[in-house]
Amino acid sequence: MELSKYEVFLKTVELGNITQAAEFLGYTQPAVSRVIADLEREWGVPLLIRGRVGVSLTPEGKHLLPRIRSVCAAQRELENSVDELLGLEGGAIRVGAFHSVAIQWLPQIIRSFLELYPKMDIQLTFDLEYSSVESMLIQGEVDCAFLTLPLNLHTKPPLCTRFLKRDPLCAVLPIDHPLAHADCYPISRFAQDDFIPIQETRDRDMTNIFTSCNVKPNIRYYTKDSYTIASLVESGLGVSIMSELMLGRIPYRVACIPLDPPQYRDIATAVRPGPLSPAVSRFLEHACLWVSQHAS
């Protein structure tokens, strides 16, 4: 089924920019502008406010947005029903994930799944924050997602989750740090050493760790990227906390040791309540099997 004009509108709203939406969808910028203008003319209401740096929703656009999402969701359900009749010879699966899973697991999971079902189309979207990925799933922007437990957002009915793996969190230190070769790094030490955290907008993982341990970290820098943190730590500018999964791809010379008391994050898959398409169900089963065999 061809991309609907409603999906063009939704992608433009998501990215906040007509040019970026056109590049993402493989359209020209005038074509996307024309689709949105046609919708506005057809419905007789303005949908977007055009500015110098992007677009935003009008009050009318905000009112119609949930309905447009529902129409697109209904279209995908119809496509899934057709896929069910035809088997797994084609169709699309939209997968959401946070950064380290998108880097470490999903390329291999997707590759091995496509070896079994080469005509499937896997669309991957990732975000640095777990809450943002949860929002994608709740709003129907992805069919399934890789998240952490407990969930950050609460919905009724709740999302359906399946535990995959417990991922330890580690202290990341310069290689000449006094505790670089220690058995563990006391969380209380973060009040003394210069601490470099990822800036938290919606997630509160680091905040919760320090609150539960009654520690006020000595924050030196904020950044939004794990690789930047590792580079700063390698240069001796501070210490940090990262997951064992993320550390598997860090190309910097740093020391990684367990925290005391130990800290973890639990990784899970999640879907919205209700029946799954055969394609999504098969993909999730494949992902769970891959994790059990390769990520132990």
TrEMBL record:
CDD domains named among the record's database cross-references: PBP2_LTTR_substrate
Keyword Transcription: yes
GO MF term set: DNA binding; DNA-binding transcription factor activity
Matching SUPFAM superfamilies: Periplasmic binding protein-like II, Winged helix' DNA-binding domain
InterPro entries recorded: HTH-type_LysR_regulators, LysR_HTH_N, LysR_subst-bd, WH-like_DNA-bd_sf, WH_DNA-bd_sf
Keyword vocabulary terms for this entry: DNA-binding, Transcription, Transcription regulation
Transmembrane intervals: none
Keyword Transcription regulation: yes
A GO cellular-component term linked to this record: cytosol
Family, per entry: Belongs to the LysR transcriptional regulatory family.
Protein's recorded name: LysR family transcriptional regulator
Organism annotation: Flavonifractor plautii (Fusobacterium plautii)
Lineage, broadest ranks: Bacteria, Bacillati, Bacillota, Clostridia, Eubacteriales
